[in-house]
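Example 3.
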Amino acid sequence: EPEVTQTPSHQVTQMGQEVILRCVPISNHLYFYWYRQILGQKVEFLVSFYNNEISEKSEIFDDQFSVERPDGSNFTLKIRSTKLEDSAMYFCASSADSGYGYTFGSGTRLTVV
Amino acid sequence: RKEVEQDPGPFNVPEGATVAFNCTYSNSASQSFFWYRQDCRKEPKLLMSVYSSGNEDGRFTAQLNRASQYISLLIRDSKLSDSATYLCVPRRYGGSQGNLIFGKGTKLSVKP
Protein backbone atom coordinates (compact mmCIF):
# COMPACT_ATOMS: atom_id res chain seq x y z
CA GLU A 1 0.00 0.00 0.00
CA PRO A 2 1.41 3.45 -0.91
CA GLU A 3 2.77 5.43 2.01
CA VAL A 4 3.58 8.98 2.98
CA THR A 5 7.14 8.99 4.30
CA GLN A 6 8.42 11.48 6.86
CA THR A 7 11.95 12.11 8.09
CA PRO A 8 13.32 12.34 10.67
CA SER A 9 11.07 10.42 13.02
CA HIS A 10 12.33 12.44 15.97
CA GLN A 11 14.21 15.74 16.08
CA VAL A 12 15.51 17.59 19.09
CA THR A 13 16.49 21.21 18.57
CA GLN A 14 17.44 24.20 20.65
CA MET A 15 15.07 27.12 20.97
CA GLY A 16 15.74 29.68 18.25
CA GLN A 17 17.17 27.18 15.79
CA GLU A 18 15.74 26.48 12.36
CA VAL A 19 14.35 23.04 11.56
CA ILE A 20 13.23 21.45 8.32
CA LEU A 21 10.82 18.56 8.40
CA ARG A 22 10.70 16.41 5.31
CA CYS A 23 7.93 14.48 3.66
CA VAL A 24 7.57 12.36 0.54
CA PRO A 25 3.87 12.26 -0.38
CA ILE A 26 2.31 9.41 -2.33
CA SER A 27 3.58 9.75 -5.88
CA ASN A 28 0.32 10.38 -7.78
CA HIS A 29 -1.19 12.66 -5.13
CA LEU A 30 -1.61 16.33 -5.92
CA TYR A 31 -2.71 17.84 -2.60
CA PHE A 32 -0.37 18.12 0.36
CA TYR A 33 -0.88 19.12 3.97
CA TRP A 34 0.88 19.67 7.25
CA TYR A 35 -0.85 19.10 10.57
CA ARG A 36 0.52 19.06 14.09
CA GLN A 37 -0.55 17.45 17.35
CA ILE A 38 0.66 18.67 20.72
CA LEU A 39 0.79 15.80 23.20
CA GLY A 40 -2.67 15.07 24.55
CA GLN A 41 -4.35 17.55 22.20
CA LYS A 42 -6.23 17.24 18.93
CA VAL A 43 -4.71 17.18 15.48
CA GLU A 44 -4.51 20.77 14.18
CA PHE A 45 -4.37 21.98 10.60
CA LEU A 46 -1.37 24.08 9.59
CA VAL A 47 -1.34 24.44 5.82
CA SER A 48 -2.53 22.95 2.54
CA PHE A 49 -0.58 23.07 -0.72
CA TYR A 50 -1.64 22.49 -4.31
CA ASN A 51 -0.19 23.34 -7.69
CA ASN A 52 3.01 24.67 -6.11
CA GLU A 53 1.35 27.17 -3.86
CA ILE A 54 -0.31 27.45 -0.48
CA SER A 55 -4.08 26.96 -0.73
CA GLU A 56 -4.98 27.69 2.84
CA LYS A 57 -3.24 28.20 6.16
CA SER A 58 -4.34 28.40 9.77
CA GLU A 59 -3.55 31.05 12.39
CA ILE A 60 -0.82 28.75 13.71
CA PHE A 61 1.04 29.00 10.39
CA ASP A 62 2.62 32.41 10.98
CA ASP A 63 5.71 34.00 9.43
CA GLN A 64 7.96 31.53 11.24
CA PHE A 65 6.60 28.71 9.09
CA SER A 66 7.11 28.04 5.41
CA VAL A 67 6.53 25.13 3.05
CA GLU A 68 8.24 24.14 -0.13
CA ARG A 69 8.13 21.48 -2.78
CA PRO A 70 11.74 21.72 -3.96
CA ASP A 71 11.49 18.86 -6.46
CA GLY A 72 8.92 16.42 -7.79
CA SER A 73 8.84 14.26 -4.69
CA ASN A 74 9.67 16.14 -1.48
CA PHE A 75 7.44 18.46 0.52
CA THR A 76 9.08 20.31 3.40
CA LEU A 77 7.98 22.33 6.42
CA LYS A 78 10.49 24.85 7.77
CA ILE A 79 10.27 26.53 11.14
CA ARG A 80 12.69 29.45 11.16
CA SER A 81 13.18 30.13 14.84
CA THR A 82 11.72 27.41 16.99
CA LYS A 83 9.94 28.09 20.26
CA LEU A 84 9.28 25.75 23.14
CA GLU A 85 5.60 25.68 22.19
CA ASP A 86 6.45 24.31 18.76
CA SER A 87 7.17 20.96 20.41
CA ALA A 88 4.65 18.58 18.88
CA MET A 89 4.18 15.71 16.47
CA TYR A 90 4.11 17.06 12.93
CA PHE A 91 2.16 15.04 10.38
CA CYS A 92 2.40 15.37 6.63
CA ALA A 93 -0.57 14.16 4.56
CA SER A 94 -1.49 13.88 0.91
CA SER A 95 -4.59 13.14 -1.13
CA ALA A 96 -5.27 12.38 -4.78
CA ASP A 97 -8.26 14.67 -4.98
CA SER A 98 -9.73 17.45 -2.90
CA GLY A 99 -12.76 15.32 -1.99
CA TYR A 100 -10.87 12.29 -0.70
CA GLY A 101 -9.64 11.45 2.76
CA TYR A 102 -5.99 12.07 3.41
CA THR A 103 -3.19 9.58 3.95
CA PHE A 104 -0.97 10.64 6.81
CA GLY A 105 2.70 9.95 7.32
CA SER A 106 3.93 8.48 10.59
CA GLY A 107 5.00 11.91 11.80
CA THR A 108 8.07 13.73 13.07
CA ARG A 109 8.24 14.28 16.81
CA LEU A 110 9.81 17.70 17.30
CA THR A 111 11.18 18.52 20.72
CA VAL A 112 12.38 22.09 21.33
CA VAL A 113 14.62 22.49 24.37
CA ARG B 1 -19.54 26.00 19.48
CA LYS B 2 -16.84 23.46 18.61
CA GLU B 3 -16.66 22.39 14.96
CA VAL B 4 -16.72 18.72 15.94
CA GLU B 5 -18.12 17.28 19.16
CA GLN B 6 -17.71 13.71 20.32
CA ASP B 7 -18.10 11.97 23.65
CA PRO B 8 -14.44 11.63 24.75
CA GLY B 9 -15.10 8.31 26.50
CA PRO B 10 -13.33 6.16 27.34
CA PHE B 11 -15.65 3.41 26.22
CA ASN B 12 -14.56 0.19 27.92
CA VAL B 13 -16.17 -2.84 26.28
CA PRO B 14 -15.55 -6.60 26.27
CA GLU B 15 -14.44 -8.43 23.14
CA GLY B 16 -17.36 -9.23 20.90
CA ALA B 17 -19.44 -6.28 22.03
CA THR B 18 -21.15 -3.83 19.72
CA VAL B 19 -20.25 -0.22 20.33
CA ALA B 20 -21.55 3.00 18.77
CA PHE B 21 -19.94 6.41 18.56
CA ASN B 22 -21.78 9.62 17.80
CA CYS B 23 -20.57 12.93 16.51
CA THR B 24 -22.08 16.31 15.73
CA TYR B 25 -20.54 18.96 13.50
CA SER B 26 -21.34 22.64 13.41
CA ASN B 27 -20.48 23.70 9.85
CA SER B 28 -23.49 22.95 7.67
CA ALA B 29 -21.32 23.59 4.60
CA SER B 30 -19.24 20.50 5.29
CA GLN B 31 -19.52 18.19 2.31
CA SER B 32 -17.34 15.19 3.01
CA PHE B 33 -17.12 13.13 6.16
CA PHE B 34 -14.69 10.51 7.39
CA TRP B 35 -13.94 8.31 10.35
CA TYR B 36 -10.29 8.01 11.31
CA ARG B 37 -8.70 5.95 14.04
CA GLN B 38 -5.59 6.98 15.91
CA ASP B 39 -3.47 4.73 18.05
CA CYS B 40 -1.48 6.29 20.87
CA ARG B 41 1.34 8.48 19.48
CA LYS B 42 0.66 7.33 15.92
CA GLU B 43 -0.74 9.02 12.86
CA PRO B 44 -4.49 9.15 12.13
CA LYS B 45 -5.49 6.36 9.74
CA LEU B 46 -8.50 6.58 7.48
CA LEU B 47 -11.09 4.04 8.58
CA MET B 48 -13.88 4.89 6.18
CA SER B 49 -15.63 7.64 4.31
CA VAL B 50 -19.22 8.40 5.31
CA TYR B 51 -21.87 8.67 2.63
CA SER B 52 -25.36 10.14 2.87
CA SER B 53 -26.96 6.76 2.28
CA GLY B 54 -24.90 5.14 5.02
CA ASN B 55 -22.19 2.61 4.30
CA GLU B 56 -20.72 -0.53 5.71
CA ASP B 57 -17.23 -2.00 5.63
CA GLY B 58 -17.04 -5.38 7.31
CA ARG B 59 -17.78 -4.89 11.01
CA PHE B 60 -18.01 -1.11 10.66
CA THR B 61 -21.13 0.85 9.70
CA ALA B 62 -21.25 4.62 9.27
CA GLN B 63 -24.31 6.83 9.07
CA LEU B 64 -24.75 10.48 8.19
CA ASN B 65 -27.73 12.69 8.98
CA ARG B 66 -27.16 16.03 7.28
CA ALA B 67 -30.34 17.59 8.64
CA SER B 68 -29.21 16.96 12.22
CA GLN B 69 -25.51 17.41 11.40
CA TYR B 70 -24.87 14.07 13.04
CA ILE B 71 -22.55 11.20 12.15
CA SER B 72 -22.31 7.77 13.74
CA LEU B 73 -20.02 4.76 13.67
CA LEU B 74 -21.08 1.28 14.75
CA ILE B 75 -18.51 -1.41 15.44
CA ARG B 76 -19.81 -4.96 15.69
CA ASP B 77 -18.00 -7.92 17.23
CA SER B 78 -15.25 -5.69 18.61
CA LYS B 79 -11.69 -7.00 18.71
CA LEU B 80 -8.81 -6.18 21.01
CA SER B 81 -7.13 -4.52 18.02
CA ASP B 82 -10.03 -2.05 17.74
CA SER B 83 -8.72 -0.28 20.84
CA ALA B 84 -7.85 3.24 19.67
CA THR B 85 -9.22 6.77 19.54
CA TYR B 86 -11.92 7.20 16.89
CA LEU B 87 -12.08 10.58 15.18
CA CYS B 88 -15.11 11.94 13.38
CA VAL B 89 -13.73 14.21 10.67
CA PRO B 90 -15.82 16.55 8.53
CA ARG B 91 -14.19 18.31 5.66
CA ARG B 92 -14.61 22.06 5.85
CA TYR B 93 -14.51 23.93 2.60
CA GLY B 94 -12.50 27.08 2.62
CA GLY B 95 -9.72 28.58 0.55
CA SER B 96 -9.48 26.68 -2.69
CA GLN B 97 -9.90 23.17 -1.34
CA GLY B 98 -10.73 23.07 2.33
CA ASN B 99 -9.25 20.82 4.94
CA LEU B 100 -10.09 18.12 7.46
CA ILE B 101 -11.18 19.27 10.90
CA PHE B 102 -10.28 17.03 13.82
CA GLY B 103 -11.77 16.94 17.28
CA LYS B 104 -10.31 15.06 20.23
CA GLY B 105 -12.13 11.86 19.33
CA THR B 106 -13.60 9.04 21.38
CA LYS B 107 -11.32 6.58 23.10
CA LEU B 108 -12.25 2.91 22.85
CA SER B 109 -10.72 0.20 24.98
CA VAL B 110 -11.67 -3.40 24.18
CA LYS B 111 -10.92 -5.82 27.00
CA PRO B 112 -10.52 -9.61 26.84
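Chain A is about 0% helix and 50% strand. The longest strand of chain A covers residues 43-50.
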